[in-house]
């Protein structure tokens, strides 16, 4: 929107230093610096060329709560010290909230708050957008968020269970991103949808197609969440959905309770808010209309470009200082990080080697197992062939026995017939005489 050319100097782990040479600013974001070698190379080059370095951060990753999934998994652990170094080394830091700026201000004096705005090239606000979708008489309550919001969702789960009991059969729940709690799935019609794309524009198109009557945005009260921005207010309102928000920053600064949204803290407040929105369609409509007007007045990106242009212009004229007010700490942490990453690299290489050997051993065992199976199959096929041949021979013997038995039966029938014939009875005395005569001659 500002018609500023952006060069990507780092993609998929590869550096392109030539992209930085003619730039006015070098900006890096979030936990990019966990690729510490790339970070050191690029920031050192930028500073050598007197190019201002800007660190952009929108989450207080230094203060992840103990029950946060990313803290449990250690997802950001390797990036924390490099991020602290980035805080000291940056010529300016941009954050999305004043709370985050206040937290970082002791470590860098040049911090700028640039709020998250709604990109109206992606989100086309339409009052009728959500109302045009129908879902019979059911009220659909929706939640949108990633897996890291499990503690936030768990906080309001008892309320969702209570409201389900009150409106059994008339409520549906839709969870977008995060999976639905099993307790809720077992007693209510619940749908879980996982967006297929992580490209934000694609996600916006997907989200605009969702039918929701009410949305919820619970967040636990802790420093990490307090430093977040109210992006869910912008996105829910953009698609025409009224929502209930936790009554803590950032939502307390954006929501006028009962005017453009509802704020709630306790379980009773959450329950009463849900009941009000379920039973009062007019309230839902009024909240959406007020929220969308608020966004048009304050939060559209196209109306706030000046915030960005002024900052970039200021930083383009910024003179990179030769001495840092935190030179001692900066030097210390710049000495600690290489040692840590050398250790991490050695350990990772060892782990990768062990993993390679382990996979190699598994592959060998797999091959041996496959060879054994092939040999056993060959033996089995051979045994089957031999068994088949034996069955053929046995069939022949059985058939021969049957034929012989049939011949004996035929002879027996002939003998019986002969024995019962008149000629046999007539010649019987003669046969006895001949027999007697033979014995006498003998």
In brief, what are we looking at here?
This protein has 442 residues and is an alpha/beta fold. The protein has helices at residues 18-21, 36-48, 69-73, 77-89, 98-104, 150-166, 182-185, 200-208, 223-226, 231-238, 251-254, 267-279, 281-298, 305-316, 327-419, 422-426, 428-441; strands at residues 10-11, 14-15, 26-29, 53-57, 92-95, 111-113, 139-145, 171-177, 189-193, 214-217, 243-246, 262-264.
Could you explain the architecture of this structure?
This protein has 442 residues and is α/β, with parallel strands linked by helices. Among the domains are: 123 residues; 162 residues, Glycogen Phosphorylase B (Rossmann fold). It has 17 helices and twelve strands. The strands form three sheets. The chain has a six-stranded parallel beta sheet with strand order 9-8-7-10-11-12, sandwiched between helices. Helix 2 links the parallel strand 3 and strand 4. Helix 10 crosses helix 13. The longest helix is centred in the C-terminal third of the chain and has 93 residues. The N and C termini lie far apart (137 Å). The relative contact order is 0.09.
Please give the structural blueprint.
Layout: E1 10-11, E2 14-15, H1 18-21, E3 26-29, H2 36-48, E4 53-57, H3 69-73, H4 77-89, E5 92-95, H5 98-104, E6 111-113, E7 139-145, H6 150-166, E8 171-177, H7 182-185, E9 189-193, H8 200-208, E10 214-217, H9 223-226, H10 231-238, E11 243-246, H11 251-254, E12 262-264, H12 267-279, H13 281-298, H14 305-316, H15 327-419, H16 422-426, H17 428-441
Parallel strand pairs: 3-4, 4-5, 5-6, 7-8, 7-10, 8-9, 10-11, 11-12
Antiparallel strand pairs: 1-2
């Amino acid at each position: 929107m500002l018609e500023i050319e952006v060069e990507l100097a780092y993609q998929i782990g590869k550096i392109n230093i030539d992209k930085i040479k003619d730039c006015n600013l070098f900006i890096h974001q979030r936990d990019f610096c966990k690729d510490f070698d790339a970070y050191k190379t690029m920031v050192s080059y930028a500073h050598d060329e007197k190019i201002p370095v800007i660190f952009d951060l929108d989450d207080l990753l230094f203060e992840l709560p103990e029950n946060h999934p990313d803290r449990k998994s250690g997802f950001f652990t390797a990036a924390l010290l490099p991020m602290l170094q980035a805080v000291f080394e940056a010529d300016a830091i941009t954050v999305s909230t004043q709370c985050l700026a206040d937290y970082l201000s002791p470590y860098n004096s040049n911090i700028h708050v640039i709020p998250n705005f709604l990109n109206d090239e992606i989100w086309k606000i339409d009052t009728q957008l959500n109302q045009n979708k129908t879902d019979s008489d059911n009220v659909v309550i929706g939640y949108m968020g990633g897996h890291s919001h499990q503690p936030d969702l768990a906080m309001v789960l008892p309320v969702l269970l209570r409201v389900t009991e009150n409106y059994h059969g008339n409520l549906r729940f839709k969870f977008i991103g995060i999976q639905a709690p099993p307790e809720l799935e077992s007693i209510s019609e619940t749908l879980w949808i996982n967006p297929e794309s992580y490209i934000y524009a694609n996600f916006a198109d997907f989200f605009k197609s969702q039918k929701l009557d009410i949305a919820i945005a619970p967040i636990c009260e802790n420093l990490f969440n307090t430093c977040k921005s109210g992006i869910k207010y912008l996105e829910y309102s953009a698609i025409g959905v009224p929502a209930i928000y936790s009554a803590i920053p950032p939502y307390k600064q954006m929501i006028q309770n009962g005017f453009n949204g509802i704020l709630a803290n306790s379980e009773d407040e959450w329950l009463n808010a849900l009941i009000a929105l379920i039973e009062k369609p007019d309230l839902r409509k009024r909240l959406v209309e007020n929220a969308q007007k608020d966004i048009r007045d304050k939060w559209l990106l196209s109306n706030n470009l000046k915030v960005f242009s002024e900052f970039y212009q200021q930083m383009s004229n910024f003179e990179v200082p030769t001495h840092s007010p935190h030179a001692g700490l900066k030097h210390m942490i710049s000495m600690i990080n290489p040692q840590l990453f050398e250790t991490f690299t050695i350990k990772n290489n060892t782990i990768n080697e062990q993993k390679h050997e382990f996979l190699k051993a598994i592959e060998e065992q797999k091959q041996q197992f496959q060879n054994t199976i092939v040999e056993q199959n060959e033996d089995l096929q051979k045994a089957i062939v031999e068994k088949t041949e034996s069955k053929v021979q046995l069939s022949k013997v059985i058939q021969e026995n049957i034929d012989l038995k049939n011949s004996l039966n035929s002879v027996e029938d002939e003998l019986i017939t002969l024995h019962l014939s008149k000629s046999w009875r007539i010649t019987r005395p003669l046969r006895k005489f001949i027999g007697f005569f033979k014995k006498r001659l003998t």
